[in-house]
Amino acid sequence: MKNFIETLRNIWRIKELREKILLTLGLLLVYRVGSNVPLPGIDIASLEGLKDQAAGGLMGLLDAFTGGAFSNASILGLGIMPYISASIVIQLLGLAVPAIQKLQKDGESGRTKLTQMTRYLTIAICAAQAPAYIANLGMQNVGYTLPQNLFWVLSIATLIAGTIFAMWLGERITDKGIGNGISLLIMVGIIANLPQAFMQELVAKVEQDSGGWVVFILEMAAIYLVIMFAIALTQAVRKVPLQYAKRTAAGGAVAGRPLGRDYLPLRVNAAGVMPIIFAQAIMFIPISVASFNQSESMSWVRNFFGDIQGVWYNLTFALLIILFTYFYTAIQVNTNNIADDLKRNGGFVPGVKPGRSTAEYLDEILSRITLPGAFLLAVLAILPAIAMMTGMTQQWAQFYGGTSLLIIVGVVLDTLMQIESYLLNRHYDGLMKTGRLKGRSTANAI
């Protein structure tokens, strides 16, 4: 405890780090306040139907990511998800569109243009989602006090502006604050549901005589182990040894190898949380279609995809996660580019020829470590369903794995890694005495 307090003092002594943390906390507070500001003209007393809709399924996932803004009919009701969708689309287009591939290789200027394209695409996605959101309010019997046409125009404009504002907050946090801003906004939205879920579970176990304090303490121990498992999966790497050729500088002196590690870290879970998000989106499509068709022929679809605790549902979910893990890893880790970069810098894998042979060698290693990583990710994704089978409430069970836990763990590790780098650069001890934090790459940040 003494070392922890001393670390906090060291953080506070560094003026630049202190200002970044305070700015980040301030902008996150603004985001949370905005999540509770309703759309103009909304009848707050009529939101029960919307809250019931957000209790589970795809809408529940959106509500969790927006920190309750979706079910509150807030000005930030769409949250930051349109920006995430636009980023994924741009990334996928990079596989097929040569112009985008060129921008991805153009360094800072290319990234600036891609960021601008992502912003425009975000506005386009918001323009499509905002009317759907307003139409859904009517389907859930949410009332409003303004004339219908005026309400639609104001609400659509407000929702689009709200997402743009959230995007701006995230970019400001990334540029001026600490951590990845977009990821922090999502994490804060998820954590906002944690106190309520905790109290519901506590009341259910203690006051409703569903096991008492003993079962509740066992649940706390279980969630601790699950968090440790998620951290291990996030940080696990396969270290590929590297060597660098010596280079002779002017005057005959030998120049040292380029700065960097003497090994190449290939992540066991290079895809991050994206396979779970893709798989969830696929699983929600059939039930969403079946909800508009109440015929008897679609009943099996509603039964199969509506039972998130079912064996076949979770087996299908796990298989989709494994497939998407391989797919997104192939997108995220380009072994040909890695091999070319090593060759240009005089680096090579001992016993492997530079160039194509190195790319094939790295690709083989990546294929081998991705398989256990995909299986472990699938296990982590279905843990919330297993937790619900044991009698936990749905809100509390979602923190036992899945998208929520992986995002929280990844963002916290990434933020702590940045804080530790500031401490070490100022000759202070890091956050951990036993080793250095290995946060995820910002490329994997959500």
Description:
By secondary structure, this protein is mostly helical. The protein has 2 domains: 1-192, Orthogonal Bundle (Preprotein translocase SecY subunit), CATH 1.10.3370; 194-400, Orthogonal Bundle (Preprotein translocase SecY subunit). It has 18 helices and 6 strands. It has helices at residues 2-13, 15-34, 48-53, 57-65, 81-93, 98-104, 107-139, 148-176, 181-191, 194-206, 212-235, 274-291, 299-306, 311-332, 335-344, 356-389, 394-397, 402-425, and strands at 237-241, 243-244, 247-248, 254-255, 263-267, 347-348. The strands form 3 sheets. A two-stranded antiparallel sheet has the order 1-5. A two-stranded antiparallel ribbon has the order 2-6. Strand 3 (247-248) and strand 4 form a beta hairpin. It is globular, with a radius of gyration of 24 Å. The two termini are 32 Å apart. Mean pLDDT is 82; it is low at 440-445. This is Protein translocase subunit SecY. InterPro entries: SecY, SecY/SEC61-alpha, SecY_CS, SecY_dom_sf. It is a multi-pass membrane protein. The chain crosses the membrane at residues 21-39, 80-100, 120-138, 150-169, 181-199, 211-237, 268-291, 311-329, 365-387, 399-417.
Q: What topology emerges from the helices and strands here?
A:
Blueprint lengths: L1 H12 L1 H20 L13 H6 L3 H9 L15 H13 L4 H7 L2 H33 L8 H29 L4 H11 L2 H13 L5 H24 L1 E5 L1 E2 L2 E2 L5 E2 L7 E5 L6 H18 L7 H8 L4 H22 L2 H10 L2 E2 L7 H34 L4 H4 L4 H24 L21
Antiparallel strand pairs: 1-5, 2-6, 3-4
Helix pairs in contact: 2-8, 2-9, 5-7, 6-7, 7-8, 8-9, 9-18, 10-11, 11-16, 11-18, 12-13, 12-14, 14-16, 15-16
